[in-house]
Amino acid sequence: MFRRDLPGAERHSGGVYIRMDRRGRVAPGRDGSFLESVATWPDGVQPLGFWHDLPVAVLVEAEEQDWPSARQWLGELGESHFMLLSTALQVVTWQRDHRFCGRCASPTRRIAGEFAMHCDRCGQRSYPRISPCIITLVAHGEDLLLARSPRFPPGRYSTLAGFIEPGEAAEDAVRREVYEEVGLSVGRVAYFRSQSWPFPHSLMLGFFAEAASRRIRIDGVEIADAAWFTPRRLPQLPPAYSISRALIEAHLQGVRTG
Ligand SMILES: [Zn+2]
After folding, report:
1. Residues with CB under 5 A from ligand 1 (ion)
2. Are residues 18 and 34 in the same domain?
3. Which protein family is it in (predicted)?
4. Are residues 146 and 221 in the same domain?
5. How do residues 40-72 score in pLDDT, each as one tens digit?
6. Residue 11 maps to which CATH number?
């Protein structure tokens, strides 16, 4: 299990660590996962928390490596490894992108004991950026509305998703995104659950939405195609570890049990 309590590098050196390169490729460890045991952490590690009571850290190596991608690892490992790797990827991205103050452009320094970068010149602090997104399964009775982005592998369809805008409630973002992407008005919107998604720092808030009609108009920019599918005839779906797939499976389970 992963515990979010930041180990101090001076009091804890060693335990387990994750090695990744600058493109987010992650080295295989010794137990079939990406974790490597060490007596002493190498220089430059970022502590993350505790993994089964052992201090855990991440190290970014300068050279590009031929390791599996983070997405490959996420597809193979269980939920607690997912949380740990997701945290590591986001902490690394944040440190890389907040080396200078966004207010006065001076170099920042890392505060020990918390995820914070401090600017000594103007006092501004930067914390890891988390971007809330809605992701929604639109249904009409038993049928599901699924769409494909131009970036998807051929044949794959998924749920609709989009960033929440400043000042916007999540439920309003669901209604706006669905209308923008497929021209549909939705009735009832119900919260499902959330998932941290480290590409690069999204917090996906999952919702079910009921379509008021079946008539759709595809925007052609954010999505390349969208269609209604019956539970008995589905396209290629997103990977099992994604909240998109969990929304689809929860809907199908509801259809089966009536
Ligand atoms: Zn500053």
Report:
1. 101, 103-104, 106, 119, 121-122, 124
2. yes
3. Belongs to the Nudix hydrolase family. NudC subfamily.
4. yes
5. 888 889 999 999 999 999 999 999 999 999 999
6. 3.90.79
Domain co-membership, 170 together with 205? yes
Interval between CA 100 and ligand 1 midpoint (Å): 8
11 and 48 together in one domain:
yes
Alpha-carbon gap, residue 68 to 82, rounded angstroms: 15
- Find the radius of gyration of the CA atoms of the chain: 21
CA of 98 to the centre of ligand 1 (A): 11
Torsion, Cα 35 40 44 48, to 10 degrees, reads 50
CA distance 76 to 47: 24
Domain count, the chain: 3
Cα of 126 vs centre of ligand 1, distance in Å, is 10
Do residues 208 and 139 lie in contact, with contact meaning Cβ atoms separated by under 8 Å? yes
Alpha-carbon separation of residue 76 from 28, 32, 72, 216 (angstroms): 12, 10, 7, 36
Q: Are residues 64 and 104 in the same domain?
A: no
CA of 107 from ligand 1 middle (Å) equals 8
Same domain for 87 and 106? no
State how far the Cα of 81 lies from the Cα of 87, in Å rounded to an integer.
Answer: 10
Which run of H or of E encompasses 179? helix 170-182
* CA–centroid distance, residue 46 to ligand 1 (Å): 23
Q: Angle at the Cα of 251 (from 246 to 253), degrees rounded to 5?
A: 90
Across the chain, mean pLDDT equals 94
CATH label of the domain that carries residue 223:
3.90.79.10
Q: How far, in Å, CA of 159 to CA of 243, rounded?
A: 9
At 135-177, the pLDDT tens digits run: 999 999 999 999 999 989 999 999 999 999 999 999 999 999 9
